[in-house]
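Handout, page 2. Input:
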Amino acid sequence: MNRALRYATVGVIAVSLLAGGSAAAFAAPQDLHTPAPTVATAPAAASLTAKASATTVKAWEQFRITGIAKGIKAGTKLTVQQKQGKKWVSLPAQTPVNSSGAYAVRVKLGIKGVNQLRMATGSTVSPVVSVTVR
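Output:
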């Protein structure tokens, strides 16, 4: 009799699953009372904007690069980088991000022609800004 009861139970489960019945009825009861997993939101990706106060300057004439830093802590140092050949070279011009995320740095360039500049901190870089030095 015990064997017949076991076969009947297995048969009912199999028929129920094949017929599209509720598999949840046979699920472990603790699954029904487990809290839903929480979804963690990823931190906003860090980004930088950059804008030069002038597009053309004389050699060694001062201009500014300003912008906004998002996802970067206040006080973080930003460095001006200049493209020299195929490499980006850090210039000795740095500025901190203020509490509202804005920054401004004074720059003087002596290399005549079109200079490609960007702001950088760690692996975060701004879009390229071009300034022509006459």
